[in-house]
């Protein structure tokens, strides 16, 4: 068994760090439990020099002697039993169906965590390129910004670049061990960085430092960091009304947390079917803004009659439109239908409370707890508005308004259902928050929905907070991390250097004591290296370990205390081995009652050396327990027999749960991969645009249309621009691929409609709508890629060809597919 370590006595370790009065009521973790992994051995078998043990003496001196004292909370049966079982499992893994299912689930969770990080990076790149492409289109971008855009589009060359030397890597291992295990350091830094720095830091924190989103220890440490950040936010905010509402690093953290795997799984399971059902009704118009309803009404009258009556002038103010009797008659049934739809959404969300990820509920709990302590006179409604501001504003509503961004729908919603989803989100937000109609008075018509559901929603938001704390299990998880030899994170060079630089920049605020472990580590590392070019930003596994700890060789020695006897430990170990034997010999698992001596004898006389060793060991343990009077051979060891039977039932149920969870997460993984493909297609569109832009520039500057462009870092000569196409597509092809969002072509004529698409010059495209048998097209549209990219940047997904409305992102993808390989 791997050596364990415990810290010197007198070590403070609070989930909230040192935040003062606002955090004083939260229970602290025990002072004697170290957090971390065993340091790898250096020359001569001694632990290699490394740094960064959390929970050690704050002076950094390492003074103190080993201790075997364990706090009362560590001695309860659950913690000891779970810890001992975990240690016993390090022996030889049992290869049964449950173990295989658990391994598949672990692998799937790892893939989801890794893919979520890739998506986060791509989303950040797309946001950046969205903002820069607009300037590029308008030729208002500086040369260095153009280079930055180009670098953002470069792929990483895993063969290039250089890693820090082994000494530096060891120091970084110590630093990131400290940062992961003592979340207060990261929490403090998150409050100090600027908005321009927060996204890069969040990438490291959410998807690297605590990147395993389904690993209990990492998730609980991340939540502990959130608690520190929230407590400080409450402490520094002077006005209740501004709490958690502004666009701050804290609010960005909360939003990013909801985009992790568990949050995405919840949205997919709960909202996807409801949203898809709504958007299937493409022509259902539920607009209730009187001005828009009036404009749509007079447009329809003009189309039907060819003229407008004098009583319906254009360009009327909102109050005139609202007073129009016909407008009121149109809006009234829409209000009823909107409230009915919103009720179904609300019922779906409230019925799924048990599916809400634990972390999101726990953050809601902290918001309520901090509000009660900071604002003791705050009403229940006020507290619920803060909870709703997080749960609805930052989690639920974004997925309702833009379901395609969360991969909840298979196609971009058409104009009318898109507007309906926006109205539904506004209704839910008004219900969760104090309604404000200063800008949209027409929403007051939906007040009955708010009044009818206010009490219910407050009860739901309070129920969201009813989850247990995790400090005790975090103690156990942190302690068990000591037995892990493979504690590591996957990190890129730039994440490593950026985190180093941020902590170095703020070290005087974060640590005033020269002997503080964080400062010691940063002093040893020295100045942070510069960021490497994107192409050299390789990822690698960074081992995590500490140096300020004293090894303990025996887990049972560490566990023994006044309330945990050696007999208790023997009983638990005996039970654990019998369960392992039954899992290894499934043909005996269903026999009741379980004949424990016969089971041990069968294992001890088998041909499998692992079973033989376990069988002999459990026979000896059984004899010791009988001699000590813990079990009785006369009743066939009934106490132990019953516990083994109950454990086998639990494991059977666990297998079913693992299989169900695996199926659910497989759907989440597919969704995340689909989203990754979508983001990559957007990046490819930007690459195509930049290549085309350079080709056009080269054509303008060169002689006779000949020039040179740089593609993926390689120069390429260009000849004269060559017209490509036309490529022909039928109406049904475009419909099937989702390129057509809406069509006004009668059903009986669609078979005779086709589209010709050509590219006369780089970056320009011609779409022609044809009817079979006619020589000339019915309609032609000349497009520049600049126009399409600008539409996409402005979230305008519709390209109107009069007879059909096309989906802009899918049109861009089609152009990229047809013309990106132009020589």
UniProtKB/TrEMBL annotation:
<keyword id="KW-0175">Coiled coil</keyword>
<dbReference type="GO" id="GO:0046580">
    <property type="term" value="P:negative regulation of Ras protein signal transduction"/>
</dbReference>
<feature type="region of interest" description="Disordered">
    <location>
        <begin position="1"/>
        <end position="71"/>
    </location>
</feature>
<feature type="domain" description="Ras-GAP">
    <location>
        <begin position="217"/>
        <end position="433"/>
    </location>
</feature>
<dbReference type="GO" id="GO:0005938">
    <property type="term" value="C:cell cortex"/>
</dbReference>
<feature type="coiled-coil region">
    <location>
        <begin position="91"/>
        <end position="159"/>
    </location>
</feature>
<dbReference type="Pfam" id="PF00616">
    <property type="entry name" value="RasGAP"/>
</dbReference>
<feature type="compositionally biased region" description="Low complexity">
    <location>
        <begin position="47"/>
        <end position="66"/>
    </location>
</feature>
<dbReference type="GO" id="GO:0005096">
    <property type="term" value="F:GTPase activator activity"/>
</dbReference>
<dbReference type="InterPro" id="IPR001936">
    <property type="entry name" value="RasGAP_dom"/>
</dbReference>
<protein>
    <submittedName>
        <fullName>GTPase-activating protein</fullName>
    </submittedName>
</protein>
<dbReference type="InterPro" id="IPR008936">
    <property type="entry name" value="Rho_GTPase_activation_prot"/>
</dbReference>
<dbReference type="InterPro" id="IPR000593">
    <property type="entry name" value="RasGAP_C"/>
</dbReference>
<dbReference type="Pfam" id="PF03836">
    <property type="entry name" value="RasGAP_C"/>
</dbReference>
<feature type="compositionally biased region" description="Low complexity">
    <location>
        <begin position="21"/>
        <end position="35"/>
    </location>
</feature>
